[in-house]
Amino acid sequence: MGGLAISSLNLSHFRSHQAARIEFDGRPVAIVGANGAGKTNILEAVSLLSPGRGMRRAATDEIARRPENIGWKISAGIHGFGAAHSIETWAEAGESRALRIDGKAAPQSALGRITRVLWLVPAMDRLWIEAAEGRRRFLDRMTLSFAPDHAEAVLAYEKAMRDRNRLLKDQVSDPHWYAALEAQMVQAGTQIEANRQLALARLAAAQEGAETLFPRADLALTGPEGEAAMEDLAQALAQNRRRDMAAGRTLVGPHRADLTAVYVAKGARADQCSTGEQKALLISLILANARALAADLGAAPVLLLDEVAAHLDPARRAALYDELCALGAQALMTGTEASLFEHLGKRAQTLTVAENHGSSRITA
After folding, report:
1. 126-275 has which CATH code?
2. Which among 69, 93, 146, 252 is placed 20 to 30 Å from 202, CA to CA?
3. What is the pLDDT of residues 35-51, one digit of tens each?
4. CA-to-CA distance for 364 and 317, rounded, in angstroms?
5. Can you identify the CATH homologous superfamily of domain 1-116+299-364?
6. Can you give the pTM of this predicted structure?
Protein backbone atom coordinates (compact mmCIF):
# COMPACT_ATOMS: atom_id res chain seq x y z
CA MET A 1 0.00 0.00 0.00
CA GLY A 2 1.40 3.37 -0.94
CA GLY A 3 1.70 6.32 1.39
CA LEU A 4 2.08 10.02 1.48
CA ALA A 5 5.69 11.04 0.99
CA ILE A 6 7.96 14.03 1.35
CA SER A 7 9.94 14.16 -1.89
CA SER A 8 12.26 17.05 -1.01
CA LEU A 9 13.09 19.21 1.98
CA ASN A 10 14.99 22.50 2.00
CA LEU A 11 16.03 24.17 5.24
CA SER A 12 17.34 27.70 5.63
CA HIS A 13 18.64 28.92 9.01
CA PHE A 14 16.49 26.31 10.72
CA ARG A 15 17.91 25.31 14.12
CA SER A 16 21.41 23.89 13.50
CA HIS A 17 20.96 23.77 9.71
CA GLN A 18 22.24 26.89 8.02
CA ALA A 19 21.33 25.51 4.60
CA ALA A 20 20.36 21.96 3.72
CA ARG A 21 18.61 20.10 0.92
CA ILE A 22 17.42 16.50 1.17
CA GLU A 23 15.92 14.40 -1.60
CA PHE A 24 13.77 11.50 -0.42
CA ASP A 25 12.85 8.44 -2.48
CA GLY A 26 9.75 7.34 -0.56
CA ARG A 27 11.38 4.56 1.47
CA PRO A 28 11.70 4.70 5.26
CA VAL A 29 14.60 6.96 6.23
CA ALA A 30 17.26 6.14 8.82
CA ILE A 31 18.88 9.36 10.04
CA VAL A 32 22.12 8.54 11.86
CA GLY A 33 24.42 10.80 13.82
CA ALA A 34 25.84 11.72 17.21
CA ASN A 35 23.73 13.42 19.84
CA GLY A 36 23.43 17.12 19.05
CA ALA A 37 24.28 16.70 15.36
CA GLY A 38 20.88 17.95 14.18
CA LYS A 39 18.93 14.74 13.49
CA THR A 40 15.82 15.70 15.44
CA ASN A 41 15.81 19.14 13.80
CA ILE A 42 15.06 17.44 10.47
CA LEU A 43 12.07 15.67 11.99
CA GLU A 44 10.87 18.91 13.56
CA ALA A 45 11.00 20.63 10.17
CA VAL A 46 8.80 17.90 8.66
CA SER A 47 6.39 18.14 11.61
CA LEU A 48 5.85 21.80 10.67
CA LEU A 49 4.40 20.63 7.36
CA SER A 50 1.28 19.77 9.36
CA PRO A 51 -1.04 22.13 11.29
CA GLY A 52 0.13 23.41 14.65
CA ARG A 53 3.42 24.22 16.34
CA GLY A 54 5.25 21.04 15.43
CA MET A 55 6.54 18.23 17.57
CA ARG A 56 8.52 20.50 19.90
CA ARG A 57 5.73 23.12 20.17
CA ALA A 58 8.40 25.79 19.82
CA ALA A 59 7.69 29.47 19.34
CA THR A 60 8.75 30.77 15.93
CA ASP A 61 11.66 32.81 17.32
CA GLU A 62 13.04 29.73 19.10
CA ILE A 63 13.50 27.90 15.79
CA ALA A 64 15.78 30.38 14.04
CA ARG A 65 19.45 29.47 13.85
CA ARG A 66 21.70 31.26 16.30
CA PRO A 67 23.55 33.56 16.41
CA GLU A 68 22.19 35.05 13.16
CA ASN A 69 18.54 35.02 14.29
CA ILE A 70 17.35 36.34 10.92
CA GLY A 71 14.33 34.07 10.68
CA TRP A 72 13.97 30.62 9.11
CA LYS A 73 12.35 28.88 6.16
CA ILE A 74 11.26 25.36 5.21
CA SER A 75 10.40 24.39 1.64
CA ALA A 76 9.14 20.92 0.76
CA GLY A 77 7.63 18.86 -2.01
CA ILE A 78 4.89 16.41 -1.07
CA HIS A 79 3.30 13.59 -3.08
CA GLY A 80 0.09 11.90 -2.09
CA PHE A 81 -3.68 11.78 -2.46
CA GLY A 82 -3.14 11.69 -6.21
CA ALA A 83 -1.41 15.07 -6.40
CA ALA A 84 1.90 16.82 -5.83
CA HIS A 85 2.20 20.00 -3.79
CA SER A 86 4.88 22.48 -2.82
CA ILE A 87 4.87 23.90 0.68
CA GLU A 88 6.78 26.88 2.02
CA THR A 89 6.56 27.94 5.64
CA TRP A 90 8.74 30.53 7.31
CA ALA A 91 9.01 33.24 9.92
CA GLU A 92 10.96 36.45 9.70
CA ALA A 93 12.66 37.67 12.89
CA GLY A 94 10.00 38.85 15.31
CA GLU A 95 7.14 37.86 13.00
CA SER A 96 4.56 35.07 13.14
CA ARG A 97 4.73 32.01 10.93
CA ALA A 98 3.56 32.28 7.31
CA LEU A 99 2.55 29.56 4.86
CA ARG A 100 2.26 29.14 1.09
CA ILE A 101 0.86 26.05 -0.61
CA ASP A 102 1.53 25.81 -4.35
CA GLY A 103 2.59 29.45 -4.33
CA LYS A 104 -0.56 30.79 -2.64
CA ALA A 105 -0.95 32.03 0.93
CA ALA A 106 -2.90 29.55 3.02
CA PRO A 107 -3.98 28.99 6.65
CA GLN A 108 -2.28 26.23 8.60
CA SER A 109 -5.50 24.21 8.65
CA ALA A 110 -5.07 23.69 4.89
CA LEU A 111 -2.01 21.49 5.57
CA GLY A 112 -4.25 18.86 7.13
CA ARG A 113 -6.06 18.44 3.83
CA ILE A 114 -3.00 17.61 1.75
CA THR A 115 -0.86 15.54 4.12
CA ARG A 116 -0.89 13.62 7.39
CA VAL A 117 2.10 13.56 9.74
CA LEU A 118 2.31 11.56 13.00
CA TRP A 119 5.18 11.56 15.45
CA LEU A 120 6.62 9.87 18.49
CA VAL A 121 9.41 11.57 20.44
CA PRO A 122 11.31 10.64 23.63
CA ALA A 123 9.49 13.35 25.61
CA MET A 124 6.30 11.32 25.13
CA ASP A 125 7.75 8.29 26.95
CA ARG A 126 6.30 9.63 30.23
CA LEU A 127 2.92 10.34 28.67
CA TRP A 128 0.97 7.87 30.82
CA ILE A 129 2.37 9.02 34.16
CA GLU A 130 2.41 12.80 33.78
CA ALA A 131 -0.33 15.43 33.53
CA ALA A 132 -3.50 14.96 31.49
CA GLU A 133 -2.60 17.90 29.22
CA GLY A 134 -0.01 15.84 27.36
CA ARG A 135 -2.45 12.97 26.84
CA ARG A 136 -5.10 15.36 25.50
CA ARG A 137 -2.55 16.78 23.08
CA PHE A 138 -1.56 13.25 22.02
CA LEU A 139 -5.20 12.32 21.42
CA ASP A 140 -5.92 15.57 19.58
CA ARG A 141 -2.98 15.02 17.24
CA MET A 142 -4.35 11.58 16.37
CA THR A 143 -7.85 13.02 16.08
CA LEU A 144 -6.62 15.73 13.72
CA SER A 145 -5.23 13.02 11.44
CA PHE A 146 -8.77 11.63 11.00
CA ALA A 147 -10.67 14.94 11.11
CA PRO A 148 -8.72 17.88 9.63
CA ASP A 149 -11.39 20.32 10.89
CA HIS A 150 -10.63 19.32 14.50
CA ALA A 151 -8.08 22.11 14.93
CA GLU A 152 -10.66 24.72 13.96
CA ALA A 153 -13.14 23.34 16.51
CA VAL A 154 -10.47 23.41 19.23
CA LEU A 155 -9.53 27.01 18.40
CA ALA A 156 -13.18 28.10 18.43
CA TYR A 157 -13.77 26.41 21.78
CA GLU A 158 -10.64 27.90 23.34
CA LYS A 159 -11.48 31.42 22.13
CA ALA A 160 -14.98 31.27 23.62
CA MET A 161 -13.59 29.78 26.84
CA ARG A 162 -11.00 32.55 27.18
CA ASP A 163 -13.78 35.13 26.90
CA ARG A 164 -15.86 33.24 29.48
CA ASN A 165 -12.86 33.05 31.82
CA ARG A 166 -12.47 36.81 31.51
CA LEU A 167 -16.06 37.26 32.70
CA LEU A 168 -15.42 34.88 35.59
CA LYS A 169 -12.30 36.73 36.72
CA ASP A 170 -14.15 40.05 36.52
CA GLN A 171 -16.95 38.57 38.65
CA VAL A 172 -19.57 39.34 36.00
CA SER A 173 -22.88 37.76 36.98
CA ASP A 174 -25.18 38.65 34.07
CA PRO A 175 -26.36 35.24 32.71
CA HIS A 176 -26.95 36.63 29.21
CA TRP A 177 -23.21 37.22 28.69
CA TYR A 178 -22.44 33.67 29.76
CA ALA A 179 -25.22 32.13 27.70
CA ALA A 180 -23.86 33.52 24.42
CA LEU A 181 -20.32 32.31 25.06
CA GLU A 182 -21.46 28.96 26.42
CA ALA A 183 -23.51 28.36 23.29
CA GLN A 184 -20.32 28.77 21.26
CA MET A 185 -18.44 26.45 23.61
CA VAL A 186 -21.16 23.81 23.36
CA GLN A 187 -21.18 23.94 19.56
CA ALA A 188 -17.41 23.59 19.30
CA GLY A 189 -17.15 21.24 22.29
CA THR A 190 -19.72 18.86 20.80
CA GLN A 191 -17.63 18.67 17.63
CA ILE A 192 -14.44 18.11 19.64
CA GLU A 193 -16.05 15.24 21.56
CA ALA A 194 -17.44 13.65 18.37
CA ASN A 195 -14.05 13.91 16.64
CA ARG A 196 -12.23 12.38 19.61
CA GLN A 197 -14.69 9.50 19.85
CA LEU A 198 -14.31 8.89 16.11
CA ALA A 199 -10.53 8.68 16.56
CA LEU A 200 -10.86 6.23 19.47
CA ALA A 201 -13.21 4.04 17.44
CA ARG A 202 -10.86 4.04 14.44
CA LEU A 203 -7.88 3.16 16.65
CA ALA A 204 -9.79 0.32 18.29
CA ALA A 205 -10.79 -1.10 14.90
CA ALA A 206 -7.23 -0.81 13.59
CA GLN A 207 -5.91 -2.82 16.53
CA GLU A 208 -8.45 -5.63 16.14
CA GLY A 209 -6.90 -8.58 14.37
CA ALA A 210 -3.67 -6.77 13.55
CA GLU A 211 -0.64 -9.06 13.35
CA THR A 212 1.86 -7.24 15.50
CA LEU A 213 4.32 -7.77 18.32
CA PHE A 214 3.18 -4.53 19.91
CA PRO A 215 0.54 -4.69 22.66
CA ARG A 216 -3.06 -3.76 22.11
CA ALA A 217 -4.36 -0.83 24.17
CA ASP A 218 -7.95 -0.16 25.17
CA LEU A 219 -8.49 3.62 25.21
CA ALA A 220 -11.17 5.66 26.95
CA LEU A 221 -11.95 9.34 27.38
CA THR A 222 -12.78 10.46 30.92
CA GLY A 223 -13.35 13.64 32.87
CA PRO A 224 -10.74 15.20 35.18
CA GLU A 225 -11.69 13.05 38.17
CA GLY A 226 -12.06 9.86 36.17
CA GLU A 227 -15.81 10.07 35.65
CA ALA A 228 -17.36 9.29 32.30
CA ALA A 229 -16.94 11.99 29.65
CA MET A 230 -19.55 14.73 29.94
CA GLU A 231 -22.78 14.32 28.01
CA ASP A 232 -24.61 17.63 28.60
CA LEU A 233 -22.03 20.40 28.36
CA ALA A 234 -24.59 23.22 28.23
CA GLN A 235 -26.18 22.15 31.50
CA ALA A 236 -22.82 21.60 33.17
CA LEU A 237 -21.50 25.03 32.20
CA ALA A 238 -24.65 26.78 33.41
CA GLN A 239 -24.73 24.88 36.70
CA ASN A 240 -21.02 25.38 37.34
CA ARG A 241 -20.84 29.18 36.97
CA ARG A 242 -20.63 29.86 40.70
CA ARG A 243 -17.84 27.32 41.24
CA ASP A 244 -16.04 28.53 38.11
CA MET A 245 -16.27 32.14 39.31
CA ALA A 246 -14.63 31.17 42.61
CA ALA A 247 -11.84 29.44 40.70
CA GLY A 248 -11.55 32.18 38.07
CA ARG A 249 -11.63 29.68 35.22
CA THR A 250 -13.80 27.08 33.52
CA LEU A 251 -13.58 23.75 35.33
CA VAL A 252 -15.74 21.58 33.07
CA GLY A 253 -15.58 20.77 29.38
CA PRO A 254 -13.47 18.94 26.80
CA HIS A 255 -10.39 20.93 27.84
CA ARG A 256 -10.46 18.93 31.08
CA ALA A 257 -10.80 15.46 29.53
CA ASP A 258 -8.21 12.75 30.06
CA LEU A 259 -7.14 9.77 27.96
CA THR A 260 -6.75 6.44 29.74
CA ALA A 261 -5.19 3.27 28.34
CA VAL A 262 -5.19 -0.36 29.44
CA TYR A 263 -2.60 -2.93 28.33
CA VAL A 264 -5.18 -5.51 27.25
CA ALA A 265 -3.08 -8.69 27.48
CA LYS A 266 -2.11 -7.92 31.08
CA GLY A 267 -5.26 -6.11 32.18
CA ALA A 268 -3.04 -3.34 33.56
CA ARG A 269 -3.47 0.42 33.29
CA ALA A 270 -0.74 2.08 31.26
CA ASP A 271 0.45 4.15 34.20
CA GLN A 272 1.11 0.91 36.12
CA CYS A 273 3.13 -0.72 33.33
CA SER A 274 6.91 -0.77 33.05
CA THR A 275 8.73 1.92 31.08
CA GLY A 276 9.33 -0.52 28.23
CA GLU A 277 5.67 -1.54 28.15
CA GLN A 278 4.56 2.09 28.11
CA LYS A 279 6.84 2.75 25.14
CA ALA A 280 5.49 -0.33 23.34
CA LEU A 281 1.92 0.89 23.91
CA LEU A 282 2.77 4.26 22.37
CA ILE A 283 4.32 2.60 19.32
CA SER A 284 1.29 0.33 19.04
CA LEU A 285 -1.05 3.33 18.96
CA ILE A 286 1.03 5.19 16.38
CA LEU A 287 1.02 2.08 14.17
CA ALA A 288 -2.74 1.65 14.67
CA ASN A 289 -3.24 5.30 13.72
CA ALA A 290 -1.19 4.76 10.57
CA ARG A 291 -3.08 1.56 9.65
CA ALA A 292 -6.43 3.28 10.14
CA LEU A 293 -5.43 6.22 7.96
CA ALA A 294 -4.09 3.90 5.27
CA ALA A 295 -7.43 2.08 5.26
CA ASP A 296 -9.47 5.30 5.23
CA LEU A 297 -7.43 7.32 2.75
CA GLY A 298 -5.58 4.72 0.70
CA ALA A 299 -2.30 6.29 1.81
CA ALA A 300 -0.26 5.78 4.96
CA PRO A 301 0.84 8.94 6.78
CA VAL A 302 4.38 10.24 7.13
CA LEU A 303 5.78 9.03 10.47
CA LEU A 304 8.43 10.80 12.54
CA LEU A 305 10.01 8.41 15.05
CA ASP A 306 12.73 10.07 17.10
CA GLU A 307 15.13 7.62 18.79
CA VAL A 308 12.39 5.00 18.51
CA ALA A 309 14.73 1.99 18.31
CA ALA A 310 16.93 2.84 21.29
CA HIS A 311 14.83 1.02 23.91
CA LEU A 312 13.44 -1.82 21.79
CA ASP A 313 14.82 -5.34 21.89
CA PRO A 314 15.97 -6.76 18.52
CA ALA A 315 12.72 -8.70 17.94
CA ARG A 316 10.46 -5.69 18.46
CA ARG A 317 12.82 -3.46 16.50
CA ALA A 318 12.63 -5.84 13.53
CA ALA A 319 8.85 -6.10 13.93
CA LEU A 320 8.51 -2.33 13.86
CA TYR A 321 10.52 -2.03 10.64
CA ASP A 322 8.57 -4.84 9.01
CA GLU A 323 5.25 -3.18 9.88
CA LEU A 324 6.41 0.18 8.52
CA CYS A 325 7.47 -1.41 5.24
CA ALA A 326 4.24 -3.41 4.98
CA LEU A 327 2.28 -0.17 5.41
CA GLY A 328 4.31 1.53 2.71
CA ALA A 329 4.87 4.39 5.14
CA GLN A 330 7.63 6.93 4.76
CA ALA A 331 8.98 6.86 8.31
CA LEU A 332 11.82 9.19 9.29
CA MET A 333 13.71 7.58 12.18
CA THR A 334 16.72 8.84 14.11
CA GLY A 335 19.43 6.91 15.91
CA THR A 336 22.99 7.31 17.05
CA GLU A 337 24.20 4.04 15.49
CA ALA A 338 23.67 2.68 11.99
CA SER A 339 23.47 -0.82 13.51
CA LEU A 340 20.06 0.06 14.95
CA PHE A 341 18.66 -0.02 11.41
CA GLU A 342 20.46 -3.10 10.06
CA HIS A 343 17.24 -5.11 9.76
CA LEU A 344 15.91 -2.60 7.24
CA GLY A 345 18.78 -3.21 4.84
CA LYS A 346 18.08 -1.79 1.40
CA ARG A 347 14.45 -1.17 2.29
CA ALA A 348 15.55 2.13 3.83
CA GLN A 349 17.30 5.29 2.73
CA THR A 350 20.14 6.27 5.07
CA LEU A 351 21.24 9.81 5.88
CA THR A 352 24.19 10.76 8.07
CA VAL A 353 24.12 14.00 10.03
CA ALA A 354 27.27 15.48 11.52
CA GLU A 355 28.27 18.73 13.16
CA ASN A 356 30.45 20.82 10.85
CA HIS A 357 32.01 24.07 12.12
CA GLY A 358 28.92 25.16 14.00
CA SER A 359 26.41 23.91 11.44
CA SER A 360 24.94 20.52 10.52
CA ARG A 361 26.01 18.58 7.43
CA ILE A 362 23.78 15.92 5.85
CA THR A 363 25.16 13.22 3.58
CA ALA A 364 23.41 10.31 1.87
Report:
1. 1.20.1050.90
2. 252
3. 999 999 999 999 999 99
4. 23
5. P-loop containing nucleotide triphosphate hydrolases (3.40.50.300)
6. 0.92
